[in-house]
Amino acid sequence: MDDELENGNLGPYADRPRTFPNMRSKAYNPLIFRILMGINFRVLLILLFLGLGVVFYIGARTSPIIVFVFSVCIMSFLLSIYLTKWVLSKDEGPPEMVQISDAIRDGAEGFFRTQYGTISKMALLLALVILFIYLFRNLTPQQESSGLRRSTSAFITVAAFLLGALCSGIAGYVGMWVSVRANVRVSSAARRSAREALQIAVRAGGFSALVVVGMAVIGIAILYATFYVWLGVDSQGSMKVTDLPLLLVGYGFGASFVALFAQLGGGIYTKAADVGADLVGKVEQGIPEDDPRNPAVIADLVGDNVGDCAARGADLFESIAAEIISAMILGGTMARHCKIEDPSGFILFPLVIHSFDLVISSVGIFSIRGKPDSSLKSPIEDPMAILQKGYSLTIVLSVLTFGLSTRWLLYTERAPSAWFNFALCGLVGIITAYAFVWITKYYTDYKHEPVRTLALASTTGHGTNIIAGVSLGLESTALPVLVISLSIVSAFWLGHTSGLVDKDGNPTGGLFGTAVATMGMLSTAAYILTMDMFGPIADNAGGIVEMSQQPESVREITDVLDAVGNTTKATTKGFAIGSAALASFLLFSAYMDEVAAFAQEPFKQVDIAIPEVFVGGLLGSMLIFLFSAWACSAVGRTAQEVVNEVRRQFIERPGIMDYKEKPDYGRCVAIVASASLREMIKPGALAIVSPIAVGGLTALVLIVAFVQCFHAHQYFFIAVTKCFRKGNNECLGCVHGIVEVMYCTVLIRQMQKDQISRFV
């Protein structure tokens, strides 16, 4: 902040142009972008073409399907570049808008640099742990027969983990990068037309969505093709293609690791800043939301970008990557059991579905256009209705492309009608996605009864408002659970009756049918993410308009966009939760397949009557509440620091309320940033360390049990010897030894039955 302005020597604040502080002296770019920008353009272009050539060469040696996936992803990247240039070509408005936007951008990029610097260090440390574990981990019989060594498996997993973490980080940065540049352009467009402001916000969100989904797909495709060529898959004495997807799990784990801390740190930041700004500004001081006199308003606007844009991009990247990999594993397993002649279609089917997702979502994004004759005087159209039309178009195209994809890739002579059953499974997933969007819209849109009922409850006091809000939140879980349950059962039944059977004649398509339904639900993920990114961009635009004191007519437009943005953000959260519920079913099934491969025994069900399994379920349920409690506590503590700082500034600078003194926005941004990064460690560590701790405790219990069995056997043989030497006086000891041995033998067999003995 300028020193003279800080000391209040430039005259009354209300009479001067609105100037806002820069949080840093220059814009921040990640290291990888700084390296690329330092390379000569011609050299960079040559390297780019060489890289594309290598990628397509590897793809051509793998499968024509991979070439198709590469082509669609690259075209989507080119389209996202066009969207970027289109958005950035729009004007930024008057200087006061630009200065506010610069302050938001600097705060968001500063937090991103610190947060992802911390995450990258933890990722490198975890990569070393994974390397150590895999160097001593047993290989599956299929991997051993193919000649794959432990060291090779370890380095492959670590490389996939680091690539997944890197791509997830880039996905988060892309979401933040576009939002902090589009917000001021939406604000400027709102001075002219509501439809133009909507179009800019949607296309800015579309850029981020295409990059996030495209990177998830092309990252997995590159790994698959590279491992296929490098390991000589399907050649004599090498790995089978049905086992290759198991090598990709590291990619999903890397994406999940980054998404966990991105969501946690960004969520703490945005909620703490929001709570702190509203409690003092709106409640205590009675000033409007996003008022420039509130010292925490910039931190609040920064939180929209780091919490809702960067974190949501990393979150959906992780969801898509996990769904693709788990579906590939299940497809390969089913193809192997059914002896399908060409299993590549079943394995690569998820990549093709998400490639078509990029195409149809692009059509939906470009279907939202501005009207040349629109003006501020014309009635404001309902933005949600416009977005819903684009989503409906995307849904129709998704049904068509899904049916074509199933006929192309899932047709097999062993079950000629199976592709149609799987197409119906995809339709179940698409209907589930649409139902989730509708349910979330119903419970969060201001035009529907739940929100209006909650607003009515607010008229009678804080207590009734809280009671009504908690009640509404609990009620809103019923319909999604029913929809998810119905979709899982329906998809499993359709897959089960597809006609695909194993060598013993048992139907095997049930789990893969559920996987196809999950793909159907995520087949419009790019457009859903576009609507999600629209929310924080519109929210920021409203804040910029309020802080720069634009006319009331402009604020009316941004208020409508902001209200719709809150609904679209909630819609994406509901969509992500629903897809995660389906994906978790797939991940657990894929885990069971991998355990069966390592244990070389069938593992088809989990018996909760076993105490260890039941206790494990209780511990897992407990972790959800403990994690949530620690996260909420972190938000509360951080919000308290913001409240104290804002109160201090209002007391020490009484001229703030009269526009005679300027708030210190940077101080609030620094407080929230440092506190959120500090507070995210404890809940994040709980999610990562708890499974390791439970596994370690289980291994310790097994070791103690084996030691006990060893001593029991030893005691048994001593007792028998004494029995023969001294007569019947020692028979009680012999009987006791027999009982101990029988107990330990049963215990060991139970451990083997539960697939736990392999941990020892």
Automatic annotation (TrEMBL):
It is a multi-pass membrane protein. The keyword Transport applies. Its EC number is 7.1.3.1. GO terms for cellular component: endomembrane system; membrane. It comes from the Eukaryota. It is found in: Endomembrane system. Keywords: Ion transport, Magnesium, Membrane, Translocase, Transmembrane, Transmembrane helix, Transport. It holds the Pfam family H_PPase. One of its GO terms (molecular function) is inorganic diphosphate phosphatase activity. The chain crosses the membrane at residues 31-59, 65-83, 119-136, 156-180, 200-224, 244-262, 346-370, 390-411, 418-439, 478-496, 508-529, 574-592, 613-636, 685-707. The keyword Magnesium applies. It is an enzyme of class 7 (translocase). NCBIfam families: PRK00733.3-5. This is H(+)-exporting diphosphatase. It comes from Carya illinoinensis (Pecan).
